[in-house]
Request: fold
Amino acid sequence: MTHIAHLETGRQLYGGARQVLYLLDGLAAKDVRCTLICPPDSEIYSAANQANLTVVPVAMAGDLDVGFVPRLYDWLGNHRPDLLHVHSRRGADVWGGLAARRAAVPAVLTRRVDNPDVPFVGSLKYRLYKRVIAISDQIRTELRSAGVPGTKLRLVHSACAGGQTPGRTREQFLDAFDLEPGQTAVFCVAQLIARKGHAYLLDAWTEVLSEYPDARLLLFGQGSEEEHLRTQADRLGIAHALRFAGFRADLHEFLGLADLLVHPALHEGLGVCLLEAQAAGVPVVAARAGGIPEAVAEGESGLLVTPGQAAELAGAILAMLKDSGRRRQMAAVGPAHVARHFSLEAMVSGNLEVYREVLGVMFRS
Reply:
């Protein structure tokens, strides 16, 4: 049986890490033996154990932990997987590639972000991989522009597990987030880091509130920008209309109860939260950044705006809030759009095709 080792070094169970779990589950259904290698203090380590996946803890102190190379090399040398699939950019893309090269194990890399590499480092690390998988065509284009040969690049979109019926009633949802029955709930689901564009959303929210004072913005996520955003909200006088809801592993239980999802990212590989919202029947407003235009059926399941333009963002949000019929139309389109273009089956099959190219073996369809 073909043995694929997967390396994910992210500490939180964000979109990329959840994609790895989806892939491992799908590969198991195809009778592909998989081992997940990850830090023992990561959330994916706990989640993989709970799902009864084969998981190996390998400590990693951070992006600059050069000692990770011999630790991973030792495991690769002792267990000899047929291939190493590196999923994380956080140090793993360099250290994982070096360890695989030293152990003479072929490796592939999935690139999930659209922000540019450090030129010298980027040009070297991609040479360590037989294939580089981009999760959006925008990322593939940027990698090609950075000098990665087109013959090495493959496109495999991220996937969505499909819409789930809310596990909570509307009343339970309102109570959990201190909302009143007549208030409109707008979600933003993203790490609280600068490239996700929250600062522009807060600027836009002042204009939204001028016309919809009962609108409430729920910010789901955590990150280094939280204090800055709280200070900005206080300065703008909109703190009463915000909820800093933190990271919620149970988001799927109430995502479908949102009236609208907004994603103002300045850089985005694809935007898994956009897929999940559309699959749950929630219309979206998002910035036209990175792979987002591939994730959203513009004008059909959502509206796209220029990244970093608060006034344009506010206008799109207001246009959606004013037209409940349009929101319902877009909500009806979203699930089919996601099922057609971002299914788990397509994501698993796409990765299997890359493995077949590298290893020259066939897998069960």
About this structure: The chain has a mean pLDDT of 94. The longest helix spans residues 324-341. Residues 77 and 207 are 59 Å apart (CA to CA).
